[in-house]
Amino acid sequence: MHSFLLFSPEVVAARNAGRPIVALESTIISHGMPYPQNVETARKVEQIIRDAGAVPATIAIMDGKICIGLSDAQLETLGTAPDAIKVSRRDLAYVLSQRLLGATTVAATMICAQLAGIEVFVTGGIGGVHRGAETSFDISADLQELAHTSVAVVCAGVKSILDIGLTLEYLETHGVPVVSVGQPGFPAFFTRESGFDADFRIDGAEQQASFIRTKWQLGLKGGVVVSNPVPQGFAMPKEEIDRITEQALREAGEQGVTGKKVTPFLLARIKELTGGRSLATNIALVEHNALVGARLAVALNAHAA
Ligand code: PSU
Ligand code: MN
């Protein structure tokens, strides 16, 4: 086993017993939600996964180790630390070797999950091609990771802070299948529809598992996006989120926000501009993704590799 990995007792027991494990990212805790809702949500999501018959493994970088599964105290540290570093593929070796506190993005969590032998990962939204990427070159490393790293990522689509059409084009170019659950449409995080269809609608966990296992058995490395819309009743009004997104994007441009700061800036501004209402949507969709991800992990575990 990789010397950088440190498994929690719960995850060690799950591995020994061959039980299904679901990875969870930590940037959503450190940079995606305010305290204390971030820590409360992290715990709730872990419990939803347990109740559905799988074992949660929240991933973060601490004390020179890739921690696979965090204690309550570690979750609290991540949720309150002002200096947690957002870690994507580029940052991983730096934060590990310098023994800094790191919260993993979708890209970094996929890398760590693969190292740990975990096939399913649950998050809120993935990164993508930013609007104006033709001049900024701002394309999330999450997409390259999906191209190369064989982990299924359950999410609620991508936010309309991004160019959703270009994000789907990019995924197609790199051979990353985009599955939708319960509807043909690819969701847009706060809203159930983006105006684009996913590639394949597959509603059942068993059928999703069969598809994903077949892809990997064919030697087709790389991820699969399993997009699950926010539950009805928790979605935000489209006009409101469109208006607020435009404002947040304008402010990011005016303030010269670039690089890895762009996504956290936009997420925080949207939360402020919705008066915190976007947070309830965010929590509801992550919880629902946890259920879908746990069921998928259970089904994949039954389809031996
Ligand atoms: N999109 C969201 N919520 C998030 C993120 C993206 O709707 O919390 C986080 C995830 O950790 C994702 C990262 O992997 O932001 C992408 O950042 P960037 O765009 O800098 O690659
Ligand atoms: Mn970026």
TrEMBL record:
EC number(s) stated in the UniProt entry for this protein: 4.2.1.70
Gene3D superfamilies recorded: Indigoidine synthase domain
UniProt KW Lipid metabolism keyword: no
UniProt-annotated catalytic positions: E25, K159
Organism domain of life: Bacteria
Textual note on the cofactor: Binds 1 Mn(2+) ion per subunit.
Pfam families xrefs: Indigoidine_A
Residue sites binding substrate per the record: K86, V106, S140, A141, D142
GO cellular component term, pick one: cytoplasm
Top-level EC class: lyase
Claim: Lyase is one of the keywords in the record: yes
Keyword line: Glycosidase, Hydrolase, Lyase, Manganese, Metal-binding
A molecular function (GO) term: hydrolase activity, acting on glycosyl bonds
Known function: Catalyzes the reversible cleavage of pseudouridine 5'-phosphate (PsiMP) to ribose 5-phosphate and uracil. Functions biologically in the cleavage direction, as part of a pseudouridine degradation pathway.
Family that this chain belongs to: Belongs to the pseudouridine-5'-phosphate glycosidase family.
Record's protein name: Pseudouridine-5'-phosphate glycosidase
Organism: Massilia litorea
